[in-house]
Amino acid sequence: MAGGYVGRILWVDLSNGTHEIEELPEEIYRHYIGGYGLGARIIYERQKPGVDPLGEEAIFGMVPGLLTGTGAQFAGRYMCVGKSPLTGGWGDSNSGGFFAPAIKQCGFDGIFFKGKSERPVYLLVQGDKIEIRDASHLWGKSTIETEKMLKEELGDSRVQVACIGPAGENLSFISGVVTDRGRIAARSGLGAVMGSKKLKAVVLKGNAKIPVHDRERLMNETRRFLRRMAIADRIVKWTNKGLLHRAGKLMRFLPFHMRQEAILWRIILKKFGTSGILAFSVEGGDTPVKNWKGVGYIEFPLKRSARISDANIIKYEVKKYHCYSCPIGCGGIIKKTDGRYPIEEGHKP
Ligand code: SF4
Fold first, then answer.
1. 180-59-112-14 Cα dihedral, nearest 10 degrees
2. DSSP code of 338?
3. Strand spans (E) along the chain
4. Mean of the pLDDT values across residues 172-201?
5. Å from CA of 183 to ligand 1 middle
6. Is residue 96 lining ligand 1, measured as CB closer than 6 Å?
7. pLDDT value at residue 34
8. Residue whose C-alpha is closest to residue 180's, from 97, 245, 237
9. What is the mean pLDDT of the chain?
């Protein structure tokens, strides 16, 4: 952060289609940093107590991290924030992909929405241009269709889109906000908060320079970190999925626990994504089977849990990818043509 940093957040009032830019002093960032912290501070301060999360006075925000877009690693996620219609308490939900840096590249440390539109709309920020546009033709469309249609009508495949589908429009309490044709900020029902505001999508493209106080030091630290991460790449090359899978099975029977190095997590995530920890999370009771009413190792004994194992999921993977500024690269696109539930193209769970 540059000394005397002054950040900017964008406020959009959907009741009358206006917007304003608010400047935030460095002190706010020193206390609340960014992402979740900055979002919580803004909402705590500006939203009245007791508001209906789907009402006119509820605030919904999208906030990237403090280091997003600076070249720092693991800084490519953004946080959706608001009051959760699911719990009536604090709601937050985050997602990777490429939407977070787009907020910073538009010159903002967060975008906050208040009020409700009477008709479906989307927010378009392209450089200095900020517009609320009609989204009636997109209402009812899935998130994948919506992103495709917006890119086509804007004639630009590089705009970043965050949108809701029919679940959010119909105020489902388990609806989320989707970017990158399938990455979802899924928790807290914040898709319904967007839906209640008739906000179908947020579309961003900018090229604002992101200030860094000491860029050389940041880049040196990043390079040092990446050198350490490269060790995991070499280990992944020595192994194959069968070996890792067998090692995982063996560990289930050991009568003791082993300390797990962070590098082990890197290897598992790089190879399998979070599907690499699903089976043993289920067996160990750390997965909400039947919304925590079920007992993992009873509902999914070893033979059954093998069916949801990492190897069974990644056999459908046709392409791997990294989210923005993430050296892990656990993302994968899957294609499944067999069985009862074929998938034409989708993100790996
Ligand atoms: S590639 Fe995987 S680990 Fe990296 S940000 Fe995306 S989801 Fe997270």
1. 90
2. S
3. 6-13, 18-25, 60-64, 78-83, 90-95, 111-114, 121-126, 129-134, 160-163, 177-179, 183-185, 199-205, 317-321, 331-336, 343-347
4. 97
5. 10
6. yes
7. 97
8. 97
9. 90
Residue 188 in contact with residue 92, Cβ under 8 Å? yes
Measure 333 CA to ligand 1 centroid, in angstroms: 13
Q: Are 191 and 175 in contact (CB under 8 A)?
A: yes
Q: What is the pLDDT of residues 100-125, one digit of tens each?
A: 999 999 999 999 999 999 999 999 99
Residue 80 corresponds to which tokens in the numbers above? 């959706």
Cβ atoms of 61 and 42 within 8 Å: the answer is yes
> Which tokens hold the place of 52?
């209906």
Residue nearest atom 6 of ligand 1, based on CA coordinates: 323
**DSSP category for residue 270:** H
Atom in ligand 1 nearest the alpha carbon of residue 273: 2
Ligand 1 atom with minimal separation from the 327 CA: 4
Full set of structural domains in the chain with CATH: 6-205 (3.60.9.10), 215-347 (no CATH)
- Kindly calculate the radius of gyration of the chain based on its CA atoms and give it in whole angstroms: 21
Lookup: tokens for 330: 């656990």
Closest residue by CA, ligand 1 atom 2: 330
Give the pLDDT band of residue 45 (cuts 50, 70, 90). Answer: very high
pTM of the predicted model as reported, rounded to 2 decimal places: 0.89
Q: Determine the pLDDT at residue 301.
A: 80
Take residue 56 and report the two structure tokens written for it. Answer: 């006119």
In this structure, what token pair is assigned to residue 310? 């990492």
Query: How far is 251 from 301, CA to CA, in rounded Å?
Result: 15
Instruction: State the distance from the centre of ligand 1 to the C-alpha of 216, rounded, in angstroms.
Output: 25
In the DSSP assignment, the letter for residue 341 is: S
Compute the distance from residue 57 Cα to the ligand 1 centre, in Å.
34
Number of the ligand 1 atom closest to the C-alpha atom of 329: 1
